[in-house]
Amino acid sequence: MIDPAAARPEPLMGTARDWAIDLAVAVAIGLFVGVIGPYGSYLNGAPWPRIFHFVVCFCVGTLIFGVLQRLAVAGAGRLRIPVWPVVIAALLVGCVPLALFISWLATTLWPFLRGRIAPLEWYGQCVFLSGPVLSFVVVRRALKARTGVHPVSPAPRPQVAPASGEVLCLRMEDHYVRVHTLNGSRLVPGPFERVIAGMSQEGMRVHRSWWVARTAVTGVVADGRNLRLTLRGGLTAPVSRASVAKLREAGWLAPDSSVET
């Protein structure tokens, strides 16, 4: 069965939840950077304008790179070219409008900065600080969306009956199941319940560790206080006390077959 939510293709520009998470990350990074005050911004006066500046800049950068980097990842996949050169190119392009915005906001909050920082310096700050951080956040999510979600199909039932013979019984052995036939036995991976579910023959679980095919039973033997089923191929299978009533109801045991309790 395919999970409809998993099979639904991821929108090119991401979901509203993706954007909300990215912006929340941007706010957290902006708060942190605003507190430490890089590039000498801690000298600009009170911390609150600085924190506001970096939070706003990182949010605007998230919007810019959120679009460009998603387009870069999708374009690289469609053109079947390495993704990272395209991502780096998108980073360099996205830093142009971001640098223009950062310089405008900074000189608006701190007018004394006008003319003191060259346009190339604003751009360099974006390339070495904001761009890589925001690109990493967006690209990681975009790559995960492109490669990490696939329809979920159920595991196929094991084919426990080998070509060499009819299955007589199954016996649980640790994390494996031993399949007995007239021509020998072999081990298959468990769990026991899953192997039993894959059986096409009529049978019953007669013990915690044993499943027996109906056609394999040749008789019933009292073993002290317990019963055992004799099977073709010289095999015997124990019958748990809890299974006696079920076997009798199914007609596997004669009405007078009993076990002491």
Written description of the protein model:
- A hairpin with a 2-residue loop joins strand 1 (167-173) and strand 2.
- The chain has 7 helices and 8 strands; from the N terminus they run αααααβββαβββββα.
- The chain is of the alpha+beta class and 261 residues long.
- Helix 2 (16-36) runs antiparallel to helix 5.
- It has helices at 4-7, 16-36, 47-79, 83-109, 119-147, 192-197, 241-249; strands at 167-173, 176-181, 184-189, 203-207, 210-213, 217-223, 226-231, 235-239.
- The model is unreliable at 1-8 and 147-163 (pLDDT under 50).
- It starts with a helix and ends in a 12-residue tail after the last helix.
User: What overall geometry do the principal axes of the alpha carbons give?
Assistant: rod-shaped
Structurally, the number of domains stands at 2
Tell me the number of strands. Answer: 8
Low-confidence stretches: 1-8, 147-163
Strand content: 15-25%
Give the assembly state of these chains. single chain
Count of individual helical segments: 7
Q: What portion of residues is helical?
A: 40-55%
Placed side by side, the strands forming the largest sheet appear as: 3-2-1-5-4
- The computed structural class is alpha+beta
**Biggest sheet statistics:** 5 strands, antiparallel
Based on CA atoms alone, the radius of gyration comes out at: 35 Å
| pLDDT averaged residue by residue | 82
Termini Cα gap: 46 Å
The arrangement of helices and strands along the chain is HHHHHEEEHEEEEEH
